[in-house]
Every structure is written in structure tokens, then in C-alpha cells.
Fold these 2 entries.
Entry 1:
Amino acid sequence: MEYIHYYVLFQNHTDATAMYRSLKSKDMYAQISPTPRELSVCCGVSLLVKGEDVEEIKRIAEEEKLAYLEISGLNNTFDNTRHRYG
Amino acid sequence: MADNQQMWKELGMNLEMHDMLCEVLPGAIGDVFMSQENRPAAMDYFDMVLADVHGLRPSELVEFRKNGGKVFGTFCAYVPDEVIFAAGGIATGLCAGSQFWVPGGERYLPANTCPLIKAMLGARFDKTCPFYRLADVYIGETTCDGKKKAYEILGTDVPLHVMDLPQMKRDKDYLKWADEIKELIAVVEKTTGNKVTAENLAENIKKINVKRKALERLYSLRRNACVPISGTDTLLISQIAYYDDPERFATMVNKLCDELEQRVKDGVSVAEGKKRILITGTPMAIPNWKLHNLIETSGGVVVCEETCTGTRYFENQVDESGTTLDEMVQNIANRYMGINCACFTPNTARADDVIRLAKDSKADGVIDVNLMFCQTYDIEGRSLEERCKAEGIPFLGLETDYTDNDAQQLKTRIGAFIEMLG
Amino acid sequence: MKKYIGIDIGSTASKVCILEEGKDPVFEVLPTGWNSKITAGIIKENLEKRFGDISDAEIVATGYGRISVEYADKVITEISCHGRGGYEMKGEDCTIIDIGGQDTKYINVVNGKPVDFLMNDKCAAGTGKFIEVMANRLGLTIEELFELAKIGKPIAISSLCTVFAESEVINYMGEGRSREDLAAGVIDSVALKVATLVQRKELQDTVIVTGGFSDNEFFAGLLSKKINRNVSAMPNGRYAGAYGAALLAKEKAD
């Protein structure tokens, strides 16, 4: 099943930063994002990545010993006209 | 992140309630920030701070305090960070920008108090903001009646020092503010156990000036015909300015500005064909992005904020030529007294600022947005409108709070205003 | 023949204006009901019954339910549409006061274009909703309320809030005050609230009323006194928004 968004979750932001830098250095798409509540109760930083890159990211993580908790898909949307601000 | 939960627990936060905030914030950030197209790459640092706004910086403050450091929580652009950092302390902003905290505040304050003040007390007493838990002393100031009385309530369970800000700008008021800064120095010295000296103060005047200059550079880049960064992103940076380490923040803003300069050279705009809007009015504390989001999804782009989360925070530098402690304190006082807040009378210089900034930013129109029940800014709206109209600058006055329920009504007004500019 | 259609989905009534080259504008009105999407659908059916296919018509939607008109080519706020339509109806620069079902608007038109506006939509005072609530309370239709108001001596209704004003009227009814005096009080209070709203803004010598009560000479006369300007009633004023939308549809297409 395909999801709209894929998130890499981490134990801490140091791991998140390391993964982000590695992906960026390879010109891969990654966006720093708050962890959606549906994926973790612990808030904090996650990385939004492209679905087609997920396997490659797993490979890179293994090769470069980059720590992460899991990569999860989520069918959430970003809607700039929802006007719900929390 | 598992680390955060443990830290929040140790800080004595109400985890269950805080969880409700964690539940809504990622969605709002997705809608407001991540939905934007063509954002500068160097926004990643600020995205990181925002994504973990109650984790990243608080964890640094926890470490700092473990080593004996003292944290000072502040609420206002008038509080001079220079003296706090000179004594080896850290100044940080405190939460006050979400509807989430308002009901908590209404347990202590009349409903017809401005939402910022209600949120301030709610965040404190609901124990849902780590920064309130981390501050060793709160530094208040007499910028409005609502805050003055709210500090009395806030001060019942934490050390609180209130600075008496003059409400006029006569020579004696500048001297009086310097005296108030000296009193703050005494409080800071007593709390930290460190002396503020001519040497460390000079160093920190420079440090905070560097931070202000970085923001000035960022804002000047928005004046270009080609707008290299959205108002929404810039607002976030201005909000983070209150919380972040000043040196790191300045470095990150300058890094972003390098990228924006290149964008201007390459003609990369995030606002092709959009109407340029200057916002003036009351502060917009994290996570209050409502107006920017509404404007920037209605055919406008915000090119300047004449607010406390905008130009009031960084315009004018502290004169670095002082050599004695007294001279430096007076120079600091002079810089901060240059901020034009509606708590002063008269305050015509604010209208001068708005006109100057509107012209410099080539604004097509000015939107004056005030938080409900902020009497001083509300009253000033009328004279500001007259000044803008006399200068031929279209003007729209809006009043709002932190709730989402007036979004469509605001959208109609903002949409109509932008159609009018076209 | 190319058609330009303006659709104004208001909170109470939905108005349609059809413009065709060489013909007088056609106006229609229907109640908005509880769902503006359904209303927009009914309008579409009506248009198709009349013209067959409307896919080549230029359609502009406006009003509070404007986003529900999914088949519109463009969405424009009611401020711009009322400004454009009111100006066309009056034939000169003017200040427009629109009294809608849920809001009251001030629009200043200079050189044919809106240059300033103000909206009250946080509160029902000074809107059509207030008149509707009070008419119900007095057991009258809105038309009857206006008729009675003409012969009554206004009783001051001082509450700013519609809910409290209703209690105030109930108290007066308990005291046995006459219906015509109460009716006059209700209309007077609406005029006063509208006057209070617009007095901060610049008023031109020519002021027109649009919205549901726009053809009411009595109300226009009352408002004239309160704001010290010559306020004209507009026979088709309730269609100003739809008319403006149709005109803007034509201008965008040209």
C-alpha cells in the first residue's frame, strides 16, 4: 500500500541531523518535520522522505551506520487552507 | 523522541495535557509551513527548532542549569538581553501564542483580557510549556495594564522581577530606563553570582548587535522586487529569535541570507504576482501564524512586520562606543527606548516607522492586526489609518484572537483588501 | 450570445444576475437554506433549464457561500462585487451600506472602484438577522414590522447584543407597550447601529443602501437622519452583489 507521506523516526535529534546531512549531501529529498502524533507519542524531529527513496535510505543507513527507529507511511495531507493553528 | 518525555517529566510538566498540544502542532506546521513551495534550503535549521520546539532548546537549558547556569524568562522586546548574557545567564522567551493555553489563563484572568496574557498564565499554571519550568527568574515589564496585573498572579509561585518601563520619552525617561537596567543588573548578578563588568557587557552588547544585524539583513532582503522568502517563514525566524542562542541564531540567519542574496540575483521569487503587505500591530508569539497564513493564501505576501516579532525587535543597534559600565548601560537604555510601543504617549514615531517601512518595502498595503482587548494598539489604529491614508497607502484594520473560528471572516476581509489593491 | 452570470450566495438569500449583450439584466432570488452547496446546485439546474448548456458562460461567485459554487470560473469577495454592482446601479461614486443577513458592510467607491471597506460580522446587531429575530418575537413578518414601525414612536432598545435586546423587547411587551412603538424601536436601533459602525469612516454625499432592505424608503429615510447624508433606497439593491459579480465576470472576460 502506498502512503502520501513517509517519515523516518529517530530516538533523538542528533540521529535525525546525521541522517538529514547524509541525505542532503547526496542531493536526496528530505525535509525536517515534526513527528506526526499518529506515528509516535514522543513528538520531536522526524524526516519527511520520498516513498521511492525508502529502500535506498535503509541501505544508506546500514552502510553509514545511521541510527533510526523506523520508517513509517502516513496518509496525512498538508492543506494551507485548513486554517487550524493549534 | 523518547528523550523528550523523560525531560518533560523531570521538569514537572503535565504530560497528559501537553500531549494534546503535541497532537495538533505537527498538523498545523504541515499546513502552514510544509505546504509552501520553493522554500529556501537554509530554513532547515529553523524547521528543526520548530519541529522540536519543546525539546531541542529546553534540553540545552537543562544541561546549562545542571552546570549551575541560570535562565531568565522574558516576555517583551524591551528586556535587554545584553545584561543577562553578560552575567553568564541565558535569556529565553516564554510561551504565550496558542489558544491551547487560553482556557487555563481564564481561570485566573477575566475573559476580556488579551489572549497573549491569558495564554501566558495558562502555559505557566497548566505546566504545559517547558520554558516556564526552566526559568529561574521571570523578568516582566510594565508595557500594559493587563500584563502588570497578570505578573502579580504569576509572581506568586516563582521569583519575578518587573522592570518599570517609562510611558513617555522625555530626557528623564531615558535616564529612568537606565536606572531600571541597573536594577536588572543587580537581580541578574544576585541570581547568577556573577558580576556584570565593563568587559563582559561590551562583549555582549556586540553579540546581541550581531544578532540584530542579521535580522536587519534578512528584512532588507525582503524589500527586493523579487521576494526570496515568504512572510510566514520570516515570522517563524523572528519568533525563534526570542528563544535561541544568540550567536548560533545570528550564524544561521546569515547563512540563510547568503542563500537569499543568491536567490535575488537569480530572480527566484516565492511571491510572483502577489500583493506586498506590511503587517503592523501586536506581537505574534509561537505558534500564532494565523494572519501570515491567511494573507499568503489569499494572493498576498508579507514583506515586513512592524511588530515586536518583527522590526521592533531588531531595529537600531546599541552604540558600542561606551567604555564605562554607566555609559554602556545608558547606551543600552537609549537603544531600547527607541522601540515604539503603543504603551507610550505620544507614540507618533510608530506611525513614522510604519510609513517609512511601507515605502522601503514597497508595500502595496498595510494591515494593522491587533489582538482582541489590546486597548493601546486598538486605539492607535485610528490615527495610524489616517496617517497611512494621508500618504496614499491602503490600510486595513483587523482584530482577532487565537481561535480558528474567525478564519473565514478574516479571509473575506483580507481577500477584499487584496482585490482592492489589484 | 455570450452570458455573464453573477451568483451571490448570502447567509439568508442567494441572488443570481444574468447579463446578455443588448438585454436588460435578469435578477433572481432564492432562499439559501441550510446547505449552500445544494443551493448552488439548484441555481445551476435553473440556469440549465433556462439556457441549456451553460459551460461557455462566464460565472463569478461571491457572498459567504461563494466557495460552494464549484462550477464558477472565478470567486470574488462580496466587497468587490457589491462595490461594483452598487456603483453601476447608482451611476456615480458613492458610499454603499449593505445590510445583509449576517453582516453589515460599508464600502466606499471612488472613481468606480472600492477604496475602503468595513464589515461587521461578529455580532448580529445592525444586521438583517436582528430584524428577523425581533419580527418573530413580535409575531410579525418583516414587511409588517416595517409597516408598523412607520406609525410607531420608537422605544429605545439599548442592548448591543441581539439576545439581550430580545429580552429587553420581551420586558417591554410585558409592560404592555404597543407593537408599533416596539417595531419602531427595533428599526430605529438597527439604523443607529449601522450609523455607529460607519461613523468612523468617510461618507460621501451620495449614500446608497443595498441588501435585503435596500428598496425600503422608510429605512433609507431613517438612516439619512442618523448619518446626516442623503441615503437613497435602491429598488434592486439586494442584487447589487450578484450584479457586480456578473459585471466583473464580463470585465474579466473582455
Entry 2:
Amino acid sequence: MGSIVSIRDVVKEYSLGKVVVPALRGVSLEVEKGEFISIAGPSGSGKTTMLNLIGCVDTATRGVVEVAGQDTGKLTERKLTALRLDTIGFIFQSFNLVSVLTVFQNVEFPLLLQRKLNGAQRKARVMQLLEQVGLATHAKHRPNELSGGQRQRVAVARALVTEPQIVLADEPTANLDSVTGQAIIDLMKSLNQQKGTTFIFSTHDYKVMQHANAVVRLADGKLQGRETGEAAVAAALKGMSVAPVAQAAP
Amino acid sequence: MLQLFQMGARSLWQHRTRTLLLGAAIAAVSALLIALTSLSTGMRTTMLVSATTLSTGHLNVAGFYKVTSGQSAPVVTDYRKLMDVVKDAVPEIDYLTERGRGWAKIISDTGSMQVGLAGVDISKEAGFKKVVTALSGNLDDLAKPGAIVIFEEQAKKLEVKVGDRLTISAATPRGTSNTIDVTVVAIGQNIGMMSNWNTFMNGTSLRELYQLNDDTAGAIHVYLKDINQVKTVQARLRKVLAEKGYGVMDDDPRAFWMKFQSVNREDWTGQKIDVTTWEDEISFVKWTVDGLTGLAVMVTIVLLVIIGVGIMNVMWITIRERTREIGTLRAIGMQRARVLGMFVIEGFLLGLAGTVSGTALGFAFSAALNAAHAKVPVAAQLFLMTDHLVMLPTVAWAVFAVLFITGVITAVSLVPSFLAARMKPITAMSHIG
């Protein structure tokens, strides 16, 4: 399988007035199609920055970020937006649903932006996904009429509705209780297995990380390691400091 | 697109208190614009009906006769022949009448006043009785020699009633003074400014006063089937009259009595014909209507600027509140143009709802004032040309109000919407507040 995401020597710096704050310091990473990969690390380690770069909502200061074979640094704003729409699905920590739209409309929205399907096809696709996330009966509800877990399931459905190659999830369970969080991860995992969609999610919850088939560890904006396979992941979770980066690269 | 409209509408509904306040302000401006334009349209219509009956036709074929170059009289000689020429040249004619014209002093036992005199043949004045209402006496008695109709305000000043005698003193075209005695046969209800200086008397008696022969008239009033044709017909008449050998005065859009000085300065004698429109003859009052229309538009613009600033501020607040939502929508693939469209649609919907309801309110307010037959003070009657308010809302102004004000509101919302669309998704999503 080829890389769906390729990050090479990426540096990301933010300017806070006259102070330059490095968020990523020369990170390289390859993500294969169909992986269910977790980015782990303490707060401020650069997890969200990495997801933002992969999600094309931000651009690297230096280095190359390739998503679905396209160098994002060379794309116009319009093309980046189109890439996000057609290739990437987002699941946010705080759900980020549009409050004035119903559950159905929230999930349907990316399809409307795509303009590829007609009304009947859109309806069928949305309802199928809502069935999958167990919210078909809530299609006409507004987000404020749902629980946190239900909202996150709507966000999952919205992220998947365009059948993207990659789904990015930034701390998807952080605002949920452990049972609901577990259910969301199970849902993501089953969709990953059924459809072969690549999932990249950030978390610092070890229970969540256990479901990943690879864990990428970040600290202070640097890649600390990447563990693949259940045993390696388990070991990584135990010590969070197993293999050096060079050995861990796939 | 439908979804953007739906989002806009729901967003407005979600913040209904704010929407209601802004919508009410927009509605108030729209209603004010409709009310003011209804008033000016009402005035224009009243003026048209009153003026074209009392002091002018749709078109006037009149002129000046000068015995010497420095002395003019507002008369046309051999008017019957002139009438035939007009009839042949203007197939659009509904009807035409001849009127005598004059400016004289009327004197009662207790007072006197300068007035304009119109000599009429009441049997040929089709519209006269539709406009003038007799408070006392009988308008048809104008057919009697020595008869005069004055208005209630004039009757008060002169302290006369029906049956009383008045003396009229005027300068004849020959430069001498002449007086005749007349009898008040009717007192008409005031009809605004026109009734302040207009009086109507028997046409034959007016000729006696000015010592004119039977073939001389003040003006031929031409009434067209379609008043919108006046300019075309005026141009044609001027051309035809010149071709027929009449001396035709240069086009001068002023009332006949404003032309005496300039005519007296011109070096010619004999008869010259002037063809004027109703608007020329009442140009001295038309500015009030134009002024009011201008005022309506000015007031609307000023209020719109104030409300526009308010709308812009509210849009800023809305966008601040929804910055994270903008970031999310941009992240999931919404192009900048669509973000712009989303907020512009919201402004458009707010503007449309406000102006439509405001216009409806303006129509209702106008209808209520008409139904109430609201009296206006005497001073205001001078300009309004009626003793009560006449509001005439029009579809054209309603359409203008809706399009213009909605357009302004939409345009105002463009600036913050544009800046919202320019935001980077990452910046918008990490916005706090």
C-alpha cells in the first residue's frame, strides 16, 4: 500500500508578537492507506498542529506535507479547500456541528458543497450513515437536542459522508465520558475496517490509543517514536519510550 | 443555495431579539419612506386634479398681445380660429375650453384683496364641479352675467356671503383702469393654495372688465385623453402654429403671470402665442412636491446610514459569535465565496423581511390617514393644496423601497461577510469568544 500522507522535515512556527514559538521541529511521518493511527503526546507536544497540517487547514513553515499525492504547500487556497472537501473528513473535539441545521442537514452539508449527488442520492447516503452511527431516528433533531456522544456520532457521520480517504480526529473522545468515548472509538474502528478509510486521531487517553494499529509519539514538537503492531503499541503505552525514531519508521 | 437561505433564516430566528430590533428599525425606515412618498404622490395628484381644473389645462394655448412693445396683456385674439387649428393638430384631445385671464383687486364693503380672475363658461367646464364644492350658493349661477365664485377663506377676509356685491378694479390692455360690480353666486370650499388667489367669474363679464371683444380669450385649455402625452403634443403644437403663421414665443417653463416683465422687455408688438404645460403653469408650487419627494429620499438615506452602521456592527457581532462555525465550515470544504454568500444572504433576508413589513406598514398607515380624512392646518394647506391629507402610496415606490433598502442592507453586510470569508480556517476554529 502507498502513503496517503507524507510529511518530510516539517517545521511549524507561530509568531506571538516578536516571539517565534516552534510547534513542530523537523517532523517526518508516512501514513499508509487504511491505517488506524493515533498521535499521542502531552499537551503542547504538537499533536493538533500536525493534524492541522495534514488536514490542510494550516500550512508548514518549512518542509513538505503531501496529502493524497498532492504537495499542500504548492496548492492555492481554493484547491486546498477542494482537497479538504473531497479527501479529508474532520472530527473535532467539541463536535463543531452547525447549530441551526438538523442532524440530517449537518451530515448532508459536505455533499451539498460537493454537488456530485442528486437529492435522492444524498438522502440515501446520509440516512445510511445515520443508521450506521445509530442516529437515524434523530435525523430531524437539532444538535442542542442531542447528548455529547450523539453529537460526536453526528460529527463522525459528517466526516464520512463524502467517503474521504482520510479522517482526522482531534481528541474525539476528550469531551465524552469513558463509555461514550469507547463507543465512538469502536465506531471509528469498525468504519475503518469496513471501508478501509484511513483514520488519524490525536489523543492522550491510553485506553483510546490501545485501539490504534500504530501510535506516533510526539513531545516538544519532535517525533519520539512510532510503534506498530499490537505488541509494540502495548509496549509503547507501558513506557511511552521504546524505539528510537529511525528504527520505528515503517 | 437553498441550504444557505435556510441557514440564514434559522440564524436570524435563533437570535430573534436582535433580529426583531434590527428588522423593526429597517421596517420603520421603509414605512417612513412609503409614508413620505405617499404624501408627495398624494400632493402631486391633488395638485394635478386641482390645478388642471382651476388654473390650467393639461396644455395651454395662450400668449400675449402688445399694443406697444412695453405693454402686454395675457390675451389671445381671434381665439375661435386658433381653437380650430388646435383641434386639427391634436387628435389626442379629450376636450378643450377657453378661459379669460386677469389679475385684479376685488373690493367689498369691509376689505379688498388682489386675486387672479378666471373668466369661465360654466356650461363647458366639464371638470369644474368635480373639484370645486359649493359651501353655499350654486356654481351653475356662474352662467349669469356679473356672477363671481370665491372661496371660503376669501369670503372670510372680505366678510361677504352669497348674494353680496363686490367691485372689481383692473387695468385694461390699453393701460386704463376699469371697474365692474359683480355678485357672489357661490362660495367654494377651500382647496389649498389655489383657492387663496383664484376666483371664477362669468366669462362675458370678465371681457367687459378688460374691455375685450367677444373674439378674445385669455387662454385655450386643452385636456388630453392621456396626460403623459403633454410634452409630445406641446412640441407638435408649437411647430404647427409656427407653420400656420402664428408668432410663437420661445419655450419658457414658467406660469404666464411670471412672464410679464420679460415679455414687456421684448421688442415686438401684436400677438404672440405661448404653448405651456400644466407643470409650467404651476411650476411655482411644484417645487414643494419635488422638495418633499427629495426630502423623503434624503431622510431615508440619512436613516439608512444610521441603520447601516447598526447593521454592520451587528453583523460584526454575529460573525464574532460564529467564527468557530466559519472555521468548521471552511475546514470541511466550504469555499470563501460560499461563506461570503452565507452572511450576505443573512443580511439580505433581514433587509427583505424588514422592508416588506415596513412597506406594508406604510401602506396601512397611509390608508388609515385617508380613512381618517385628517385635516391639515391652513398654513400647510398652502403647500398641500387640499384641506385634508391625501396619501397615495404607489406600487412603484413600494418596489423601490424594497429593492433600494434591501440592497443597501445587503451591501452593508458585505464588508464583515467578506472579512469573515477571508479568515483562515485554523484562525477561525481557534477563535475564543
